[in-house]
Amino acid sequence: MSLAAPVTERIGGPAHGAPKITTLPAWPVASILVFYPLWWALGLGVLIFAAMAVPMLFLLLKRRTAGRRVMLPPGFGWWALFLVVVVVSIGALGADPVGTLPEHATGRLPAVTYKLVMYLSLTVLLVYAGNLTESELPKKRLVKYLGWLFVVTVAGGFLGMAAGHFEFTSPVEMLLPGHIRTKGFVQSLVHPYAAQIMDIVGGDKPRPAAPWGYTNTWGNNFCLLAGWLLVAAWQSGRARHKAFAVLCLLISIVPAVVSLNRGLWIGIGVLVVYVAFRQVLAGRLWIVGVVAVAGALLAVAVLATPLGGVVNARMDNGKSNGVRSFLIDRAIDGFTGSPVVGYGGTRNTVGGRNSITVGESAGCERCGNFTVGGNGQLWQLLYAHGAAGTAGYLGFFLFGLWRFRRDRSAIGVAGSAALVTSFSAMLWYNSLVTPLAFTVLAFALLWRNDAAGHQLEGDKSQ
């Protein structure tokens, strides 16, 4: 039976009456995406992915028990390899690479367990979303949900600009013991705030983060979700939806610039160039002119407004460049020390990049003890999970790009563009949790689109 066909199954014999229908309901996926601002406000945030993975896994097993096949995405062997290496690499948690703070393996286990749970949860999300049929959750509706989250991202950006110090204690946070909820990592999970206050261009300034927790995550998700808003608007066929999408993209330039997020700026460039390249391959040469005009108008708009000063100030203040170079060097050195499966997780450096005596303190939280593997998904993969884990992770998404390369539909282009931007982002952003969630949902849409195309070809041949 095809992916797009409804799933029906008789359970029991005639004594049970009419046949019962075994389906996968859309609510586990829909509720995560539609109500994400609510989960953020409640203090669940990224934890909702692990929470919803439980009913999704139960429903998949129930479907399998009912005799229906649960399909795995193309190239899943690569992803399975990655998950196996993540588990195997836990055995190296007790190792203390040169230049890192010594710590017992048990002290590192909570963070590693959290990441493993999230990787497994997003695996369930991938399989569940890919097995949903058109009658259960139409692809167009899933695209709308992702487009909605881009609107949420832009709204969160303006909130961070207008009320950078806005924060509150969430209900989940209130339920936690005081000695737990005050920990920085726990705060990042359960304490909602609008922006990160950072000294990047002189003086503490807010950088948009809501509702994604970190400014870098906000920028990563901006690139991953932008295309879906346009696809949703154009698929609706309504002029007001198209006008709203264009307006939303135009005004999103403001928080994107104010975020001082150079990785976001590069990601937008990668996104535009890739989409234009795909359109040119499809014979739509006019896209070159559109991109050129749009780029010129953007440049004029930025230079003619205070945003130009923000961009120049950011370019003149590359405070993070030295730290990033330092951490990349440490990650590569660590990789050579354990090249196959890595060290199971990240490590904190002894001191800073200039001296081993410079470390984190109450008065200077960012002075040292930097996290090796915390400055980009690629470096974390190499350091924490070695060549085997990196090959599995990258192999899965590269296989997807190759497998779905002929999909010229709006979903095909937007989905593959999301995968491409995720590769660009992994040089400076970490993927867990929401960026990887939106990446696997893009993969699920490509997978379902591909299956629907094969079904259509099969129907025509009969």
Automatic annotation (TrEMBL):
Keywords: Membrane, Transmembrane, Transmembrane helix. PANTHER family: LIPOPOLYSACCHARIDE BIOSYNTHESIS PROTEIN PA4999-RELATED, TEICHURONIC ACID BIOSYNTHESIS PROTEIN TUAE. It comes from Paractinoplanes tereljensis. The chain crosses the membrane at residues 38-60, 72-92, 112-133, 145-166, 218-234, 241-258, 264-281, 286-307, 382-402. This is Uncharacterized protein. It comes from the Bacteria. The keyword Transmembrane helix applies.
